Amino acid sequence: MIVYRKAGSSDFDAIHRLNYETFVEEIPQHPPNLERRLVDKFHEENTYWIGEAGGEVVAMCALRGERPFSLEQKGVCVPDGDWLEIRLLAVKKAYRRNRTFAGLMRAVIGDATEREVDGIVISGTTREQVLYHRFGFVPFADPIGPEEARYVPMVLTRSAFYESKSASTLRPKSLLAGPVECSERVRARLSRQPLPHRSNETSRMLKSIQQQLTQRVGLPYVYTLLGSGTVANDAVASRLSGHGVILCAGEFGERLMDHASRAGLSFDVIQADRKGKWDVSELERIKPDWVWTVHCETSLGILIDLTPLHAWQGVVAVDAISAVGTLVYDYSFADFVTFSSGKALRNAPGLAFVAMRGRAEALRDVPRYLDLSLYQPIAFTQSEPLLSAMAIALDELTEAEVASHEEKMIVLINSLCENGLQIELNPAQSPGIITIPVPFGQSSIELGRQLSYQGYLVQYESEYLKRANVIQVSTMGWTTPRMMRDVGAYIAEWMRQKTATPESDGSLKLENPDVPSDEFFVRGVSN
């Protein structure tokens, strides 16, 4: 595994030696010296990114933002814009493959994005023009330099990088719980000109989608709003009355509490444990008019046990936003079930669904957008491209695809174990998402960024994940067992490298690997 990172002063000697190997011995751009070290003339102004394998610097480049650039000092006119210049780019011969270069470029493009520049400029050797073009570099001036060390001035923007011929390799694959990795057919449909949302064609398509969804969740009425799962839950909150109970295990249970509080609802909270279990006797004691719970507590990657609610006689509302599409489940016992397009239904975000046991009655005391009785089937402006893409996504979401989530989760867990990260499967583990804690003293943010350089987006940037020092990997999109196997190996190897000592056996043991131990994470509040 190659680890990509910004270089520190302790890396400078290795950088200077790789610089010498490349630009003195291989490309005769500078005269040789006895030290076999080449210090760049802008060394003090450079930011170095390196690729490191087994403690050895195997790839590096230098970024510089000070004008004039070295290209400009050679008389080259750089296009208008705010740019960074790559001063040096060197990869050891044994590591010269697309994956190494792609990882280094992802890191550099990420750095450029954080600095809010337009992109990067570079002098690319004429020997590697095919490679540069494949990665999105575009020449903007005639070649420069002597015949034996000829270079082409080129520019690379972020959009060009991810739209290049190698885009499918370069663009990090989404292992997020949203937005998920969409199929090529879905992405293609989203790029087309929208049809009128009031047309008969759009109306027929929406009715077909809602009919398919009723069969998937087991409830006869489905209403489609333009928005996220949050608006679907607000629509449910507007239909609850009396005193209720919210089952809470983590961040998303906390969010249901916030929905209910904002709607002025009265409720008690029953805490679910880390295996999704909760005290059913509390229902008999409280005797609530309604119960509201998430099915998948996404922050922990566990399924809440809904079985006790199957025969309960009160109103039941289920937030199944991270569950629908990851498993087959009959929600016919529930009065309300919410879910959305941008998760395991494998569409882009933007469609929110409320499934109901009974037809929605008119509500005069709520905002018009939340009155589901108006949706017959379209009440307000709707996104026809999202609906068309949803139709394609549902056609692709076969029984085998739904079942594949559990299979891929097992592949991921086995890969973690096989690569030295001893992890025990929680009996309540969701097939759609898993939470993996990072050992004390190491950073989940660093691991998340490293995985993005390797080509995979995982969840680590939410504040509640940062507080708990965990990452999350999701199977919800168009993911494959190979992705899960590779990501598991990367995670385990990174942790092993970070925690290895002369006395260790190379394995890494986590006490409770399926959930974080930080109580503030469980309660969803900051410390």
Structure explained in plain terms:
This protein has 527 residues and is of the alpha/beta class. It contains 17 helices and 22 strands. Strand 10, helix 10 and strand 11 form a beta-alpha-beta unit.
Give, in spatial order, the strands making up the sheet with the most strands.
Answer: 1-2-3-4-5-7-6
Question: In whole angstroms, how far apart are the ends?
Answer: 35 Å
Q: Note the overall shape.
A: elongated
Largest sheet: 7 strands, mixed
Uncertain segments of ≥5 residues (pLDDT<50)? 501-527
Strand content: 15-25%
- The helix content, as a percent range, equals 25-40%
Overall structural class, as computed from helix and strand content, comes to alpha/beta
Count of helical stretches: 17
Mean pLDDT: 90
- Rg calculated over all Cα atoms: 27 Å
**How many strand units?**
22
List the helices and strands and how they pair.
Blueprint: E1 3-6, H1 12-26, E2 47-53, E3 56-64, H2 70-73, E4 83-91, H3 98-114, E5 119-125, H4 129-134, E6 138-139, E7 151-157, H5 158-162, H6 167-170, E8 173-174, H7 184-190, H8 200-217, E9 221-226, H9 229-237, E10 243-248, H10 251-262, E11 266-271, H11 281-286, E12 290-294, E13 296-297, E14 302-303, E15 315-319, E16 336-340, E17 351-356, H12 384-396, H13 399-418, E18 421-422, E19 433-437, H14 444-454, E20 456-457, H15 463-468, E21 470-474, H16 481-499, E22 508-509, H17 519-523
Parallel strand pairs: 4-5, 8-20, 10-11, 10-12, 12-15, 15-16, 18-22
Antiparallel strand pairs: 1-2, 2-3, 3-4, 5-7, 6-7, 9-17, 13-14, 16-17, 19-21
